[in-house]
Each structure stands twice: as structure tokens, then as C-alpha cells.
Amino acid sequence: NTPPADLPAENSTQAGGDSVLVITGETTPAVSEYGIVVDYGTPFSKGDENPLHIFGNAIGAPIQKAAVDADAELSFWNSVVGYTKVSEESLQGFVRLAQKYDRLASDIAGVIPPSKAEVVHSALVLAYQNYANGIRAIAETKAGDYLTGTALTSYGENVIALGRAGVAVSDVFYSEGVGFSPTEPGSVFSFPR
Which residues contact 180 (CB under 8 A, 6 or more apart)? Predict the structure, then answer.
């Protein structure tokens, strides 16, 4: 996936006193295996200069893009769980799935957060990295064997940690009065309260 040649690599801008990364070119995580090219420096809701709002949309966009194939991912998981021996094809599926979440973690890590979101941003990146590692541990199962309880437990713990990290990001937006319309990428962090 190559972005148009006329896009600049990356710039940093100031909005409300906090640094916000503007990601627009091929050397940035904005152009990933997901095929996403997004100018994260432009607020998705017109006139909003709040750096947390810009940041929420910036990290929400790759999450939304990664979720496009959620049905296929769920179907894959359903095909390999239970009392089923793992095939070589399934193991390769786990490897590809881990790589998907590695790329997502990298995309999110490439967004510089405003100061109020630094801690939750780091935790979210780490949670996605650990989630990918949990899937990778499952991929270490020997073809013809059943999934191990140890690998599944590790994966499950990483799922819980990822959920908590997402809620922590949401809590920062909520406590700072930052909301997102349902059509904005940052809406992935909008939970009923």
C-alpha cells in the first residue's frame, strides 16, 4: 500500500498547547497493511480544536479499520476453539492475526498523545502488543495438537487487559468532557455511562 507521492511524511502541530502528531505520509503508521491513509491532524468534527478530541479520532481510526473484518475474525476463532486439533492452516491464521494486531499497536503508537492522555495511550499500545503476543503464543501450538490451557489462559488475560485499556482511554475522554459523534472514529471509546 503506497500513499500518493504528494503527501508529506509527517508534521507536528500545536493545538491548545499540546503537541498533536499530523500523520499524512508513507513513512508513518497511517499507511498500514489496513490500507488506511488518514490526516490525523484535522479534527473530524468541524471547528473542534481540542487535542484530546483530535487524538481520540486519530487512535480510533485504525481501530475501526482493523474491525472491518471482525466477522471473518470471529469465524476463524469459532473454527479453532473447542475440542479440535489445530491444523497448520489454523496456526498460520494465528500468525496472521498476531501480525494484524502488531500493526494496529504500531499505528496507535505512532500517534503522539496530548499530555492528558500519555499514560492511557502507552497502556493501550502495550495492551495491543500483549494481545498480539497472546495470539502468537497460541500459534506456537504444534500442528495436530489441541490448544493448551496455558496459551488460552494467557490469551484470555490479554483480552481482559485490552478491554481495561480501552475503558481507561474512554474514562479520560469522559472526565475531560470530550465526546464523539457516532460517525467519528473516536466513538470506539464512547460507552454508555
Answer: 45, 53, 56, 57, 60, 173, 186, 187, 189, 190
